[in-house]
Every structure is written in C-alpha cells, then in structure tokens.
C-alpha cells in the first residue's frame, strides 16, 4: 500500500482503538409515532482525537464514518471528518421519532482506489422521553469480521502492521437464505438454527451477533453460523427481555466488504410437548404425542415452513383445528408436499406452542411383492404378499436424526435414484453424489447440492456423465472434489476425478485417472486429495499408481505410492492428519512381494506402511 507508513498507521490505529465516540440525539412530540409533532431535527456528533485526523490526511488515505438509523442503508448519513483543531465529525439526522432506534456506525478507510471497511458498532437508543445519549467505546466495535483478502487477518490488523488488506472487487453483499424464526424445546443450549448467507462473488462469509434485545444470551460460530444459547433456558423461568419465551437477536453476515444483518426470533416451547411427532402416510399423516394434563389441545398446520401461527390464514394450506386429541390422523393432504405442524396446549388462559415438526405424505412403497388384494366396503384396501414393511416413498436419500434414526424433517428433497456419497457444505446443507437423474423435482445428473433449508440449489448443476461414488470438500469449503465412473463433468472431459466450485463451476483440477474412483479423502492441511479405486495409472503422463494415489489440490501427482494389490473402496484420514486408513479387495500392500494386508491397512502420509493389521 504505497504512501502509508507502518509507524504512522500503527499510531493511527492505536488512537482509533482508544477513542470514545459520543452521540447526542433528541426527539420531540407525543407518543403517537404517526403524528407530525413526533418528528424532530436531531444532531449526532463524534469527538475524535486530533492525531486521527492528521494521520488520515498524511497516511495516503481518507477515513470516513457513516451513521445508519434503523437499518435504512439507502439513507445513511456521512459523518465528514474535520481535520481542524482537535478534529470532529458531525451529522444532522432529521425525522427521528419518540421511539426506540437502532444506530449503526461504520468506519471506512479509502486508499489506492479501494474503500476498506474497518469497523462496525451497533447500539439501540430509546428516545421515547424526547432525548438520549450513546457512547461507542473501542471494545464495542467489531473489527475482526472485515478481511478483504480472506487471509484471516482483519483489515484493521493489516493496516496497523503497515501492509495492504489486498485488492478486492466485491460489489455484491451476502444474501441471507436462512429463516427469521425457529421454535425449540426448553432446557438446552442447542437452538437448531444455522445462519446461512450466500455471496455471489464466492467470498467466504462470516457471522457475528449484532443488536437485538436478547443478543447477550447467545453465541454464534463465526464460520458455520450455528447459533447457540450460552446457557440452557427454562420455559418456566424465561430470561428474555419480555419474559415471554420469545428471544430476539440480530445476526450479521459479511464477506469482509459488505455486511448485512437479519433479525432472528427464537421461541422456547415446554418439554411437555417435546414428544410431538409425525408419521407420513398416503395422503395423510399420523400425529403422535404424550398429552400431559393440558385443558385442551389445538393444532396449527401449513405447507409453509416456519409459518406464523398468529397469522396462519395468510399461509399456504393454513389450518387451525381445535380440541384435538393425540394420536390423530390429518387427511386430505397432497402427496409429495411437505406440511408443518405446531401443537398448542391450553392451560386455562395460558397457551404453549410445541416446536414445529414436518411430514410429507406420499405414495406407499413395499419391500416385497404383492400377491393378493381385496377392497372392503369402507374403502380400505387389504393387501397380501411377501413384503415385511410398508412406508411412504422417501427416495434415495433422507435426513435422519442422529439420536433416534428417524427422519428429521419431512421436507427433504426426493432423490429418484441411489445416493453413494454425502458431504456437508459446512453451511448446514449437503452435497450428494450417486446414480440419479432428478432431485427434488429438478434435473440433476448424479450430483446435487442441498441447501440448509432442505431445498435443492437451483444454480449448482455440474452434471456428471455417470455414477459419482466419492466426495470430499476442501478445508475452506470452496471446492468439492468428486470421484466416480464419469468421464465428462460440466460438459468437459474429466476422467473419473473432477473438482467443482461452490458456485457450480468446473475447476481446472484434472488428475486423469484411467479407471473408476470409489474413495476420496482431503488431507487435514487441505493440500492433498487421497484417492482409491480401480485405476492403475494417474496423470497426463500415465504414471503408475495401483489403486491408490495422492494428488495435490494444484493438480500435481504426489510421490505417495502404497501400491495396493487390488481395488480400494474406502479411505479415511486420522484425526492428527498423519495416517490414511484404507479398505478394499487387496491382500497385499507394497506391490509385488509386498507385505500381507488382508482388506485393511494404514499408510502414513509419508508413504510408509503401518503396523495396523486387523
């Protein structure tokens, strides 16, 4: 970054981090927010140390602050920095009402044709009394989330060190695809909510908490977006601001350049309703649960996910049934459509809502032949045969709960074939590979991306020419590696191995195996892809690699050559990243005259055969 001196920048940021920002906001009028007299001209001022202004002028760049009121980014107010005297920034903010407001301050540093976002702070102020004041202290600013070149060093830290944050051309802000509300049972820190935002520029998105009256009760994983309570919450002793078991917070997603925020509401339900469950059937669902002493029970349902029970009529198929009793059958539903159910328990004047559950009715499937059938007068059809189970069609892939093995949601997309490989996208969704032609009603040749909300990614369609047996995701989550029996991927030649970007584009990675790939694992450091299968050569030059090989993520063939005696069908890497576990049809490892290893072996990442010999 030409023109910026390391020492000067260091001094500048040290002053920035100890500076105190002070706002004075006033509002006039009555309590009616719609009345004209409720609006007033308000002023906000920021006092900054003189060194900050001078350094902003001599450091080769310009420091600018913006104030945004109540999320109205289109009308943000620039706080022009004045270099005279001690330095100050001021702005006139017209039209504030006697009501609560959210103030967002953002700091940018412009240099070399780039405008770097450095820090952001969010606070709420209640002007119902007519006036109020805010203090923005250095520790209240988020600086870690802004990293233009995605090198895990913030813009502030890089400028402070006298280096450039890097040149980025991002002009598109992330877009939230995750919902705004979720309902969960009490006595757990798990909310079941994962924030998901996609970025059209392909940039890494990170998450943080901003605003919301109950923000302090939560934590969020900045990489995965998984939201958790800091402590378990009790339905009978709510700790939210209104003490009504409805917790409100704000989540920010940023690609290091463009931050966006979304309000999320987490509603807690009583454990008395935790047993509420659904079994899909033909054109109906069976609802089960343990009734525990409520005066009565009511049922809401809709085909809209996370529907609002207070306004159920505005939702698709919105229905409210009173005085229901479990178990109960809900009929006249459409096959292939997911429905969402919420049970309401009534205790006098108090009403408690269960967590939302879902089920998808569908055609019945039998695991054997039907030899006889007869219809009863009431319309029921009796069937006989050599089948032992009957259930609704689920397709070749289904999401299940890890604790019970039962389907975790009724809205997973139907796969019309076999799924051989699944890998998480680290955003709450999955990549799947196998032998299929349609997923969730969309044409998908052997590869598909399922988003966190259960929908099929409409923009991700690499189209493998044949079966996909193995998948692996790069450590940064931006590249999917696929192995199988295909020879074409995305319309271009790719013999048995290929890489696909998170945006669905075909990568240049082309190891060119001469036979099927059935297993794949990415090294812990993200630099090497280990593959196994039925191949005997690898690379454009046809280097010998019998059934096992290591390929750099840059496409180069590694020296790792265990030389298995027959085909390999499974691979796994140890937690410390030093050992590769191998399974297959081999009985030796190490080529002709090699060491006996019947179907299982370990090989070090240095190529040495391990002593492990089950």
UniProtKB/TrEMBL annotation:
Keywords: Membrane, Transmembrane, Transmembrane helix
SMART domains: CA (SM00112)
Gene Ontology biological process terms in this record: homophilic cell adhesion via plasma membrane adhesion molecules
PROSITE patterns tied to this protein: CADHERIN_2, PROKAR_LIPOPROTEIN
Stretches assigned to coiled coil: none
A GO term from the CC aspect: plasma membrane
UniProt GO molecular function: calcium ion binding
Record's keyword annotation contains Zinc: no
Residues spanning the membrane: none
InterPro entries in the record: Cadherin-like_dom (IPR002126), Cadherin-like_sf (IPR015919), Delta_60_rpt (IPR013431), WD40_repeat_dom_sf (IPR036322)
Domain Cadherin, residue spans: 176-282
PANTHER family, per the entry: FAT ATYPICAL CADHERIN-RELATED (PTHR24026), PROTOCADHERIN FAT 4 (PTHR24026:SF126)
Protein name, entry field: Cadherin domain-containing protein
């Amino acid at each position: 970054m030409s023109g910026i001196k390391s020492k000067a920048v260091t001094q500048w940021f040290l002053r920035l981090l100890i500076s105190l920002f002070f706002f004075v906001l006033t509002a006039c009028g009555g309590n009616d927010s719609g009345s004209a007299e409720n609006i007033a001209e308000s002023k906000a001022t920021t006092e900054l140390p003189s060194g900050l202004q001078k350094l902003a002028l001599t450091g080769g760049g310009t420091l600018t602050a913006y104030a945004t009121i109540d999320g109205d980014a289109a009308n943000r107010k620039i706080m022009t920095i004045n270099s005279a005297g001690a330095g100050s920034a001021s702005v006139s903010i017209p039209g504030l009402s006697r009501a609560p407001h959210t103030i967002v301050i953002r700091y940018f540093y412009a240099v070399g044709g780039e405008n770097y976002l450095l820090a952001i702070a969010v606070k709420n102020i209640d002007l119902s009394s007519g006036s109020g004041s805010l203090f923005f202290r250095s520790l209240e600013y988020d600086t870690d989330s802004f990293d233009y070149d995605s090198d895990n060093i913030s813009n502030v830290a890089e400028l402070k060190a006298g280096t450039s944050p890097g040149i980025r051309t991002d002009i598109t802000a992330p877009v939230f695809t995750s919902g705004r509300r979720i309902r969960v049972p009490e006595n757990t820190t798990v909310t079941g909510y994962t924030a998901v935002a996609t970025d059209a520029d392909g940039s890494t998105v990170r998450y943080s908490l901003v605003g919301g009256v109950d923000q302090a009760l939560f934590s969020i994983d900045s990489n995965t977006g998984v939201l958790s309570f800091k402590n378990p919450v009790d339905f009978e002793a709510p700790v939210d601001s209104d003490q009504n078991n409805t917790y409100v917070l704000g989540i920010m997603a940023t690609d290091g350049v463009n931050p966006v925020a979304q309000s999320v509401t987490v509603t807690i339900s009583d454990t008395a309703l935790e047993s509420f469950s659904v079994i899909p059937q033909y054109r109906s669902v069976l609802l089960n649960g343990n009734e525990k002493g409520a005066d009565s029970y009511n049922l809401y349902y809709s085909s809209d996910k996370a529907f609002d029970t207070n306004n159920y009529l505005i939702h698709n198929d919105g229905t409210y049934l009173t005085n229901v009793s479990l178990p109960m059958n809900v009929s006249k539903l459409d096959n292939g459509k997911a429905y969402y159910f919420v049970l309401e328990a009534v205790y006098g004047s108090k009403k408690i809502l269960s967590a939302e559950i879902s089920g998808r009715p569908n055609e019945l499937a039998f695991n054997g032949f039907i030899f006889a059938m007869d219809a009863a007068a009431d319309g029921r059809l009796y069937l006989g045969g050599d089948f032992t189970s009957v259930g609704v069609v689920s397709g070749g892939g289904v999401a299940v709960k890890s604790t019970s093995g039962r389907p975790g949601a009724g809205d997973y997309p139907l796969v019309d074939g076999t799924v051989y490989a699944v890998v998480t996208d680290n955003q709450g969704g999955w990549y799947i590979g196998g032998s299929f032609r349609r997923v969730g009603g969309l044409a998908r040749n052997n590869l598909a991306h399922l988003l966190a909300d259960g929908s099929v990614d409409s923009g991700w369609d690499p189209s493998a020419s044949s079966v996909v047996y193995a998948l692996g995701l790069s450590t940064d989550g931006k590249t999917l590696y696929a192995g199988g029996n295909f020879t074409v991927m995305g319309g271009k030649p790719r013999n048995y191995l290929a890489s696909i970007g998170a945006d669905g584009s075909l990568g240049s990675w082309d190891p060119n195996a001469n036979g099927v790939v059935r297993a794949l694992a990415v090294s812990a450091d993200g630099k090497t892809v280990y593959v196994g299968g039925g191949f005997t050569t690898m690379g454009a030059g046809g280097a010998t690699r019998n059934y096992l090989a290591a390929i750099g993520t840059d496409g180069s063939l590694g020296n790792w050559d265990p030389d298995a005696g027959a085909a390999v069908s499974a691979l796994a890497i140890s937690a410390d990243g030093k050992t590769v576990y191998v399974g297959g049809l081999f009985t030796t490892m190490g080529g002709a005259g090699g060491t006996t290893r019947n179907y299982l072996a370990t090989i070090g990442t240095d190529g040495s055969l391990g002593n492990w010999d089950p």
